[in-house]
Here is the input.
Amino acid sequence: MTDVNPDRITGSIMLAVQPQDNGQYICQISSSLVNFPRENLQCYGQTKEHAIAIALEQLADEYRRMAEERQNIDWDLVERSESGEPIPKRYHVILHYESIAEEESKFEAMHNTIMGNTVVENAKITVIEIDPDIPIDPLHRDWD
Here is the structure.
């Protein structure tokens, strides 16, 4: 008899990148995972790597949404101790922002995005409550 654990996910995610006649690329992602969010995900990119990055980000966005929805946490709920003090919680906050910038240079595109102060207000923000001892290393901007 097979032990089926509903908290376990086993399967594979496959991707294929194909060049297009216009010099761009398309990345197709498919999966054997039971809860895979889409049957077939297709994303275009300027390079092979760009197409893969966009497709993986789309996939990550779907799984972030599912993780946040599964927790079903009341946004305004504050748990309190017996003495009435708020009990601090730990959250993994993921901010995702994309835009298309028409600028004179790559530097101008980055600089004007940073200076525009619209990144946070226009971003998709996912907040997932986490255990205090979970080993998560948040991504940080590498300025090198």
